[in-house]
């Protein structure tokens, strides 16, 4: 009995890398009651300070834009280049103080498409 070897199965591994130039994050700043609410320029400074604290001057040089900000709800939409998404997310997660008071950033949504942040299926009210 002779054994014949079957040819090895050929497969091709494909890894898809996002071609998106920017990522968008919807974030909410959580502050204790009675704390001063930052305006849009102060929020941008807080984001840059968080990047500088965790990643140094290289992190602070990361181009981050505040596209929209609601001072009433403390929600903002941030834009960052794709290569800086993880740096920004980690810096926001570890940010703990604003004007010597405890604070926390919550990343609510993230997407390479700005339009995807227009609605949230988790907040959808069905009739």
TrEMBL record:
Keywords: tRNA processing. The keyword tRNA processing applies. It comes from the Eukaryota. The keyword tRNA processing applies. SUPFAM superfamilies: Rnp2-like. Belongs to the eukaryotic/archaeal RNase P protein component 2 family. This is Ribonuclease P/MRP subunit p14.
